[in-house]
């Protein structure tokens, strides 16, 4: 790296680049970190649960289908628009015009100046007149029949038109001026008109009333009539031909029109009780209400069908990957069921399906291991039967041969007969030793042999054993080199069984070492264990051969028999004994030597 090149420090997270200690910033930073952790935790939970994944997928598809339904409804609804005609606003317009006429022109306003007692007496007289008219109760003032709208006061004075005693030339329905300020004859309930009323104001009011009626007749096509309580028309507009009106029928029709649906085109009447020419009367405004036309989007089944199709397609598309994985697992299970134990399924997720794939692979691996162990056991059993049969038959054949010679007295001298007996006896001993080894190995393999463990100093036990093998080694032209530590190493072992292990190892070293040669016996302490090593010269062995050395009846040289190579159970028995002591035994081969290791746990 050149001098110009500099090592760039790792970039810090965005939130760590601001060394602020301001409380709001720290609070915001904590909230962001909390949301990040919450998101990560939720993501992990979703990744590990197929149920949550399906729920989120369903919610997403449902939301998209609802959105599509809204869009398609707007599109298809625009095509299938329906026309809606509503006359309610027209009725309200006619009613509003009637109320405006009653409030503005048929009810004169009261002035604050003048005799208040006169006003009150006028009201009382008017009410009394209403109660005494034909023995009937007057219609309540201030409410429209069926409409509930405000109406003019009953005590308001309205001059009678010219036909009924109004001044000539006055506009019908407009109050006329009274220059004397006194009640007119034949009008007992007429309120007192305040003196000093300006004739110019009366003329202006008459003109406004006339213009208002003309406007309503011309532009709104309304008919305006005023009737007394009997129904006799006392005022009418130019387009109203009636001279008599059935008040009860008008009220009934108006109520029925208000109560039924407002989508039918029919004449509508709005009426208000008023005081006209100091008499109770009814203002009736009739006309055809103007329709209000609106367009409503219609319903179309294609919107529902299309949104349902979108939901199904999206759900199928988003769950297709999981379904393919399920099919892959099922296919892998079928392949495994055919006996192909080398097949493995791919773990593609962390949810229940991924867990199922892992369990399947573990099951297949364990099943394959067990089948291989059973095959190996079957092979070993066959080899055991073959080797035992061979090893037992060979000495037994020799024993039977020499016994037959003795039985047939096929010998020349007694010394020769004694030699036959000696050979038969030695073969019998070898046969017994082979049977004993086989029996002991079987018991050790099945853990049927009880161990009598006790604490002993392994140094002393091995020293006594090695003293016995010094002379035997010298007879075989071998040198036994010992390397034992001075430290007393205490172990808990079954002494007899463990001596059998080292006797087998030393016996194999003496038997298979080239003569003359050297056998090395060493021991070291390693943490809480003691390791004993026995080494001798030997041909190089492969790793597989080293692993099979401790199998039953395994021989590196297949040409060896029980005559030259022993029973083939010594190392297998040694491994069973060591493993029963919770130790381990193994072999290594390097530089033309073979090393056997025994590792035992030190007593605490």
TrEMBL record:
<dbReference type="InterPro" id="IPR036890">
    <property type="entry name" value="HATPase_C_sf"/>
</dbReference>
<keyword id="KW-0067">ATP-binding</keyword>
<keyword id="KW-0597">Phosphoprotein</keyword>
<dbReference type="InterPro" id="IPR036097">
    <property type="entry name" value="HisK_dim/P_sf"/>
</dbReference>
<feature type="transmembrane region" description="Helical">
    <location>
        <begin position="302"/>
        <end position="319"/>
    </location>
</feature>
<keyword id="KW-0902">Two-component regulatory system</keyword>
<keyword id="KW-1133">Transmembrane helix</keyword>
<dbReference type="GO" id="GO:0016301">
    <property type="term" value="F:kinase activity"/>
</dbReference>
<dbReference type="Pfam" id="PF02518">
    <property type="entry name" value="HATPase_c"/>
</dbReference>
<keyword id="KW-0418">Kinase</keyword>
<dbReference type="InterPro" id="IPR003661">
    <property type="entry name" value="HisK_dim/P_dom"/>
</dbReference>
<feature type="domain" description="HAMP">
    <location>
        <begin position="320"/>
        <end position="372"/>
    </location>
</feature>
<dbReference type="InterPro" id="IPR005467">
    <property type="entry name" value="His_kinase_dom"/>
</dbReference>
<keyword id="KW-0808">Transferase</keyword>
<keyword id="KW-0472">Membrane</keyword>
<dbReference type="InterPro" id="IPR003660">
    <property type="entry name" value="HAMP_dom"/>
</dbReference>
<keyword id="KW-1003">Cell membrane</keyword>
<feature type="transmembrane region" description="Helical">
    <location>
        <begin position="51"/>
        <end position="71"/>
    </location>
</feature>
<dbReference type="Pfam" id="PF00512">
    <property type="entry name" value="HisKA"/>
</dbReference>
<feature type="compositionally biased region" description="Acidic residues">
    <location>
        <begin position="117"/>
        <end position="127"/>
    </location>
</feature>
<keyword id="KW-0547">Nucleotide-binding</keyword>
<feature type="transmembrane region" description="Helical">
    <location>
        <begin position="20"/>
        <end position="39"/>
    </location>
</feature>
<protein>
    <recommendedName>
        <fullName>histidine kinase</fullName>
        <ecNumber>2.7.13.3</ecNumber>
    </recommendedName>
</protein>
<feature type="region of interest" description="Disordered">
    <location>
        <begin position="106"/>
        <end position="208"/>
    </location>
</feature>
<dbReference type="InterPro" id="IPR004358">
    <property type="entry name" value="Sig_transdc_His_kin-like_C"/>
</dbReference>
<feature type="compositionally biased region" description="Basic and acidic residues">
    <location>
        <begin position="196"/>
        <end position="208"/>
    </location>
</feature>
<keyword id="KW-0812">Transmembrane</keyword>
<dbReference type="Pfam" id="PF00672">
    <property type="entry name" value="HAMP"/>
</dbReference>
<dbReference type="InterPro" id="IPR050398">
    <property type="entry name" value="HssS/ArlS-like"/>
</dbReference>
<feature type="compositionally biased region" description="Low complexity">
    <location>
        <begin position="171"/>
        <end position="192"/>
    </location>
</feature>
<dbReference type="InterPro" id="IPR003594">
    <property type="entry name" value="HATPase_dom"/>
</dbReference>
<feature type="domain" description="Histidine kinase">
    <location>
        <begin position="387"/>
        <end position="604"/>
    </location>
</feature>
